[in-house]
Amino acid sequence: QVQLVESGGGSVQVGGSLRLSCAASTRIFSFDAMGWYRQAPGKQRELVARITRGRSVNYADSVKDRFTISTEYAKNTVYLQMNSLKPEDSAVYYCRAEQKTANSGTVDYWGQGTQVTVSS
């Protein structure tokens, strides 16, 4: 069973930075894509950043030029560097891994989430 463990969340002031980590229990190169999502209270979970095996990256408009997703295959870890944080970035951040199946379906794996709180 694949496990994803996030870390690096915490409380920070406006304009500060955090780096989230998502450590996988298996080779992350085996996944077709990995991404970071977030969910604030009362809101739906939304995509923050996603990177495919082919190195294609996309970001939510609200985090472009502030957040950077990256991978470190040797450590089976995906990172999310978050700079210039704003109060609206406060949420629980989740790591997701996507794996295509033989019958053209997709299996999703999720981490347990890590809380990010940005205060003014």
Q: How are the secondary structure elements laid out?
A:
Blueprint (H helix, E strand, L loop, with lengths): L3 E4 L2 E4 L4 E7 L8 E7 L6 E7 L4 E3 L7 E6 L4 E6 L8 E10 L5 E5 L3 E6 L1
Parallel strand pairs: 2-11
Antiparallel strand pairs: 1-3, 3-8, 4-5, 4-9, 5-6, 7-8, 9-10, 9-11
Write out key terms for the chains shown.
120 residues; mainly beta; seven-stranded mixed sheet; four-stranded antiparallel sheet; 54% strand; globular
Describe it for me?
The protein has 120 residues and is mainly beta. 0% of the residues lie in helices and 54% in strands. The chain has strands at residues 4-7, 10-13, 18-24, 33-39, 46-52, 57-59, 67-72, 77-82, 91-100, 106-110, 114-119. Strands 2, 4, 5, 6, 9, 10 and 11 form a 7-stranded mixed sheet that branches. A 4-stranded antiparallel sheet has the order 1-3-8-7, with no helix packed on it. β7 (67-72) and β8 form a beta hairpin. The radius of gyration is 14 Å and the shape is globular. The mean pLDDT is 96.
